[in-house]
Design goal:
The structure holds two protein chains of two kinds. Chain A is α+β, with helices and mostly antiparallel strands. Chain A has 14 helices and 14 strands. In chain A, the strands form two sheets. In chain A, strands 1, 3, 4, 5, 6, 7, 8, 9, 10, 11, 13 and 14 form a twelve-stranded mixed β-sheet that branches. In chain A, helix 2 crosses helix 12. Chain B is α/β, with parallel strands linked by helices. In chain B, the strands form two sheets. In chain B, strands 6-7-8-3-9-10 form a six-stranded mixed β-sheet, sandwiched between helices. In chain B, strands 2-1-4-5 form a four-stranded antiparallel β-sheet, covered by helices on one side. In chain B, helix 3 crosses helix 4, helix 3 runs parallel beside helix 5 and helix 4 packs across helix 5. In chain B, strand 1 and strand 2 form a beta hairpin. Helices cover 30% and strands 27% of the residues of chain B. Chain B has a single domain, classed as P-loop containing nucleotide triphosphate hydrolases (Rossmann fold, 3-Layer(aba) Sandwich), CATH 3.40.50.300. Chain B is built from seven helices and ten strands. The chains are: A alpha+beta, B alpha/beta. The interface between A and B is medium-sized, with 24 and 29 residues.
């Protein structure tokens, strides 16, 4: 029997039982639809999160004292000497130390409590932050301990609402500052914390916080090889802090040195794991759909025993019958797969559109592999769950199948 | 110079058939010796349970015998593998069943087309013409697009006959072809089988009715699994309905 005839015969068989065929595929439609939906939503959000993170250059490193996130706690592991020593490394450029000022910021009667970074101009370059209005901090501001401040766009809005902050005098703690610049919006909800930061010269923060030895944070960029930079910094700081750590156990260090590329990689891995996990859960319904196909195909074989007998009586070989029933199962699952794929894409697209209303820019992402994998899985399920009923059909002798005693 | 040995179309020697249920043997046919020549119209006649259908199934390669010999054109059936048997069913024999066995919810055309799908040598381009000629031969051209369930019993059996002749097989087996029909439809069906016989086909008819068997030119009587009589039909009936089938 020709391949095209077998395919045609299988399709005719399905057409004769349209409603049942459609209901049989429902399990696969729901299964593939769920997998595609989960995976596409997962990848869309993964892309979204990575896009936000990748706003920062992959070459950017940060060195924290451990426990830095506990604002207000006096952390004293990274010294001015460390900053200068790191600055002298050949694998490092654009070093920007920072001291956090824990004070309130006031303009008129309006008061906010943002993060206040005492830093240098290099920080803006490292974080890919651009000036919106006015100017950034300069070396002269740092050198002369000028009472000037640059505001993140959110901080500017919180403090000044509709007024132009440029040139206005704000109060930080008990000291007056002139607003000299407002940063451009990053436009990402993930970066909203960054947009609320107020920046003052490093020397000013140092004086305000009475620091003589320690910084809270260092931002810097690698000159090329991130791994080499990380190794240089880690080796240097362990040496300076007298830390013996031949096993490279991060728990033994009193600092954390990591690149944004590493952070991006970690986020990518985590979000991918979540996507795969969701896909895996959804694929359970695919399995259930497959069992449904097998069940219906078995019923179909029993119901069509006389037809099988007739086909054998007019010359069909066992493999013709096997292929016919296998094709029927594969056609059912492939059809279900295509409908499920389309349904999953449409539903995912709509959900992402809705999410975009709340999150801003988020693009629907569906990788080609997900499409190929879902269709291949559909065919695989058809083959796997169709083979048993098809073999059962093929093994019937003509006389058994024709229903004779 | 010796003349070539004559080889009959069908020959059985001491052919036996038993059914087995676990260790329990139920013999159905005993030592059947039979020769059927090309172009014969043979009726196998006997009461219900006599083994006539079983014999037809063995001769039509639908079932296997358990002892003795069955030779088709001199070739022993026991030496044929499943693919060879399928090929013989596709090309050299065909069947008309009592219950018609048409594909449900399928058109007359598609039902008649069915054997051609499994025929190893007839090219796809020839199929349509062959199907149309077969449908025309049984007088159902006007109904070729009808679904099988829209036909009367007689029409269904004529579709089955068209399906049987579409591959131009050497032997057509008909198992109680008039069993489910009224007498007028039965006459049409027998006329069609006689026309097929005149066109050169070998016809093997299984029936329990004397009147139906009398349409054949030879009647084999079977009783309790044994052939009890092998007779020429002296008062052969001729069913007339104007059907002419060309080979």
């Amino acid at each position: 029997m020709l391949f095209s005839d077998t395919l045609h015969t299988a399709l005719e068989g399905l057409k004769r039982n349209r409603m049942r065929s459609l209901l049989t595929t429902l399990g696969i439609i729901i299964g593939v639809g769920s997998v595609v939906l989960m995976v596409s939503i997962g990848t869309s959000f993964q892309r979204y999160i990575l896009d936000q993170v990748e706003t920062f250059s992959g070459d950017t490193f940060e060195v924290n004292a451990k426990g830095m996130e506990q604002v207000g706690k006096d952390i004293n592991t990274i010294t001015f000497g460390d900053v200068e020593a790191i600055r002298n490394l050949s694998t490092v450029k654009n070093i920007a130390p920072a001291i956090f000022v824990t004070e309130r910021v006031q303009y008129g009667t309006k008061q906010i409590a943002p993060y206040i970074f005492g830093t240098t101009k290099e920080l803006f370059a490292n974080w890919s932050m651009k000036i919106g209005e006015g100017r950034l901090l300069t070396d002269a501001d740092v050198k002369g301990a000028a009472s000037v401040a640059v505001l993140g766009p959110q901080a500017a809005e919180d403090l000044f609402e509709n007024q132009n902050p440029l040139g206005k005098r704000i109060t930080i703690g008990s000291r007056k500052f002139t607003v000299v610049g407002i940063l451009e919006e990053i436009g990402s909800p993930l970066a909203s914390q960054l947009e609320s930061i107020v920046y003052v010269p490093f020397t000013v923060a140092k004086a305000m916080m009475g620091r003589t030895a320690y910084v809270d944070y260092i931002s810097l960029q690698s000159t090329g090889d991130n791994e080499m930079t990380e190794l240089d910094i880690t080796t240097l700081l362990r040496q300076r802090h007298n830390i013996e750590n031949p096993d490279n156990d991060p728990d033994k260090d009193d600092f954390i040195a990591r690149s944004f590329a590493q952070a991006t990689e970690i986020i990518g891995t985590v979000t991918m794991s979540i996507t795969l996990f969701l896909g895996l859960i959804a694929s359970i319904s695919l399995l259930v759909g497959g069992v449904g196909i097998m069940n219906i195909m078995l019923v179909s074989v029993t119901e069509r025993t006389r037809e099988i007998g007739l086909r054998k009586a007019v010359g069909a070989r066992g493999r013709d019958i096997l292929l016919q029933f296998l094709f029927e199962a594969v056609c059912l699952t492939l059809l279900g797969g295509i409908i499920g794929l389309m349904g999953g894409v449409v539903l995912g697209f709509v959900l992402v559109l809705v999410a975009a209303k709340f999150l801003g820019t988020i693009h629907y992402t569906l990788s080609l592999w997900a499409v190929v994998a879902s269709l291949a899985t559909s065919i695989g399920i058809g083959l796997a769950f169709g083979i048993f009923p098809a073999r059962k059909a093929a093994q019937l002798t003509p006389i058994q199948a024709l229903g004779y005693e | 110079m010796s003349t070539p040995k004559h080889i009959p179309l069908i020959e059985t020697k001491k052919l036996c058939k038993s059914y087995f249920n676990d260790d329990l043997e139920t013999p159905v046919l005993f030592d059947i010796d039979l020769v059927i020549e090309r172009g014969e119209f043979v009726a196998i006649m006997g009461p219900s349970g006599s083994g006539k259908s079983t014999l037809m199934h063995i001769l039509g390669f639908l079932d296997h015998h358990t002892k003795g010999q069955f030779l088709f054109q001199g070739e022993p059936a026991t030496k044929m593998d499943e693919d060879t048997l399928a090929k013989i069913r596709a090309t050299r024999v065909s069947f008309v069943f009592q219950a018609f066995n048409l594909l449900p919810r399928t058109t007359v055309f598609q039902n008649v087309l069915l054997p051609l799908l499994y025929h190893p040598t007839i090219p796809a381009a020839e199929r349509e013409g062959r199907v149309q000629r077969a449908i025309e031969a049984v007088g159902l051209s006007e109904r070729s697009t009808y679904l099988s369930n829209q036909l009367s019993g007689g029409q269904k059996q004529r579709v089955a006959i068209a399906r049987a002749l579409v591959t131009q097989p050497e032997v057509i087996f008909a198992d109680e072809p008039t069993g489910n029909l009224d007498s007028a439809s039965g006459t049409h069906v027998m006329a069609a089988l006689q026309a097929l016989h005149r066109a050169g086909h070998t016809i093997i008819l299984v029936t329990h009715e004397q009147s139906t068997a009398e349409h054949a030119e030879r009647i084999l009587k079977i009783y309790d699994g044994k052939i009890t009589d092998d007779l020429r039909s002296f008062k052969r009936r001729h069913a007339k309905d104007g059907i002419t089938i060309e080979k």
